[in-house]
Design brief:
single chain, mainly alpha, Arc Repressor Mutant, subunit A, about 80% helix, rod-shaped
């Protein structure tokens, strides 16, 4: 699961829409939260190592304030990144809903239920000009079975 979350987070950072679309919204949000926690833990670990090396107390206090400021900046950046990802999720959801509605409004199988006589005559004429069933079907965007019914 952590691998999926990490991949979702990296895809979001890289702005790779193809990779992003493969993940669910929950996986992307979980990935952002997990990676944010991981980054904060890493920064705290790095900061604590830096503090151990300092012997002078004033230098350690200075490092503390720098670490705190750095963590605040990182926190703000992560908040911005999470809000950006949330906006992306909203856009993807809206796009998915729009595409679903568009698909529902399209005619089934991309063809009308009844072909008119003019269309049938055009198909017949095209076929009689020496074209195969397949070529005729491709030209008019219909099935070869439909061409066969029109020609017979």
């Amino acid at each position: 699961m952590e691998a999926i979350i990490g991949e979702a987070f990296l895809a979001a950072i890289e702005g790779d829409r193809d990779k992003l679309s493969a993940f669910s919204n929950e996986e992307m949000i979980d990935g952002c939260v997990s990676m944010a926690r991981y980054i904060v833990r890493l920064q705290l670990a790095i900061a604590s190592r830096g503090q151990e090396k300092e012997t002078d107390e004033s230098a350690a206090r200075k490092d503390d304030s720098q670490v705190i400021n750095s963590l605040r900046e990182t926190n703000e950046e992560l908040k911005d990144e999470i809000s950006y990802l949330k906006e992306c999720i909203k856009i993807h959801r809206k796009t998915a809903v729009d595409l679903k509605q568009e698909l529902e409004n399209m005619p089934k199988a991309g063809r009308p239920d009844i072909y008119d006589s003019d269309f049938r005559a055009k198909v017949k004429a095209y076929y009689k000009n020496g074209h195969t069933y397949r070529d005729t079907a491709k030209h008019f965007n219909i099935s070869t079975n439909t061409v066969g019914r029109f020609v017979k």
